[in-house]
Amino acid sequence: MVERETWATRVGFLVAAIGSAVGLGNLWQFPFKTAANGGAAFVVFYLIAVTLIGFPALLAEFVVGRRTRRNVVGAFEDLGGPGWRVVGGVALFTGFWILSYYNVVGGWVLRYVLGSATGAYFDDPGAYLSAVASGPEAVAAQLLFLAMAVGIVAMGIENGIEKATKVMVPSIVVLMLALAAWALTLGGAADGLAYFLSPDVGSLVDNAWTVVPDAVGQAFFTLSLGMGIMVTYASYVGEDDSLPVDGGVIVVSNTLIGVLAGVVVFPILFAEGIDPATSGPTALFEAMAAAFASLPAGRLLGVVFFGVVALAALSSAISLLEVAVSYATDNTDASRPTLAVGAGVVLFLLGLPSALDTGEPGGFSAWFVWFDAIAYKLLLPLSVLLVVVFVGWVLGRDAVAELREGSPGSDGLATVWLWTLRLIVLGGIIVTLRLGIGSLFL
Ligand code: PHE
Ligand code: NA
Question: Cα(312) to centroid of ligand 1, in Å?
């Protein structure tokens, strides 16, 4: 067994975890899911879900990882016995499932960085999208995106992931702030912000049952939960770090970047007269591209916008690759680079159906939509449910003790956390699963 690395610094851990959390979930899915669910009302449910369900669940994953310092499968086995390996197995499966199409979207983003620089989509954004979103070009772009992620993970925790995310995450924040400041000067700013941020209470109540599963699924996805990522990243953390403080920093940063994304996207859409409600998953690419095509300095803005999205997607993809590589390094003697390439090959093959499928014009096919729906409505809630049951009941007081490690004076809070997990998080997930499965299969 190869000796286990650790983060060089606490900031290194934080930045890597933020890099994992901030991704396509914030910059691409959050704006379009908000739009699809009627605007600000969705934002309200999402914020509640992140705070009351996502945050406690994040701490549960941290506790498992730091207590055992093992990969996600080994961690559950160490703490609960061989039967509980299944929790780690479900997490690994969920992560591979999601990353298989995440990489394809990552490839699109790379194409849009290039397309912005050359102006290739400026004449006909729709035709450009059809050409790059599926087929051989999408396969090639997916491969390039994966190769970048594999390269970083192959270099290791300290020299690869930590160094890379230390550059990427601050760049994302600075560039997003600059883009938001610019978007607020556009003619559509006031309307865009109103659409995004002032909820219509009536629709909030009417739509609760359809919005809840989407909001909870989005909370898990955005915080990188249910995929073994936060278990794995916390397994490299020391006993003197305060997990609640670290978790809070991650949740707040991730939420702020999501809000910034809305502040960038909605004013642009309103300024260009594009109806956000009709902008599906690829329509957002199309809409943003159309906007850049008609704006002064559109090439530069396009490179910056899609460049930020690419950085964010990459720092998420590496976190998921690391879950698989960490599992394999704990169980074989093969070198880290070999294992990283191996995981990359598997992911490439799994992504081929999403990259090749041309079910609809624009390439966002039935396959892709089905994959995403299964992930949100079934796999993520199920995977987090297993973690919550394990930490809430099997670990119980041991989990409270681990959470308190490194955060003196948090005794009362740690107990509140345990009960939140047992009641609110569990209840929320069961409702989500019931509604989600209902909408998938009925
Ligand atoms: N948290 C990521 C995001 O919001 C989701 C993710 C992470 C997906 C890692 C895959 C792998 O985009
Ligand atoms: Na996120």
Answer: 9
Rounded CA-CA distance 174/92 in Å is: 33
- Find the 98 Cα to ligand 1 centroid distance in Å: 8
What is the 8-class DSSP label of residue 52?
Answer: I
Q: Residues with Cβ < 8 Å from 369, sequence gap 6 or more?
A: 281
Q: What is the pLDDT of residues 274-303, one digit of tens each?
A: 777 765 667 678 778 888 888 888 999 999
In a 10 Å sphere around its CB, with 0-12 CB exposed, 13-18 middle and 19+ buried, how is residue 222 labelled?
Answer: buried
CB-based contacts of 87: which residues, under 8 Å, 6+ apart? 76, 80, 383, 386, 387, 390
Note every long-range contact of 291-297, with CB atoms under 8 Å and residues 24 or more positions apart, other chains counting: 292/116, 292/122, 293/121, 293/122, 293/123, 293/125
Tokens of 100: 């298989």
Closest listed residue to residue 399, CA positions, set 252, 244, 248, 228 = 244
10-441 domain in CATH 1.20.1740? Answer: yes
Virtual torsion, Cα 4, 310, 171, 295, nearest 10 deg:
180
pLDDT at 281: 67
For atom 9 of ligand 1, the residue with the nearest CA is 316
- At residue 440, the pLDDT reads 79
The closest alpha carbon to 27, from 127, 134, 119, 102, belongs to 102
Q: What is the pLDDT of residue 219?
A: 94
Give residue 229 CA to ligand 2 midpoint distance, Å.
12
Low-confidence ranges of the chain (pLDDT < 50): 1, 361-363
C-beta 224 within 6 A of ligand 1: yes
Q: Please tell me if the CB atom of residue 255 comes closer than 6 angstroms to any atom of ligand 1.
A: no
Residue to probe by mutation, ligand 1, list 22, 24, 72, most atoms within 8 Å of CB: 24
Distance CA 362, CA 105 (A): 13
ipTM: 0.96
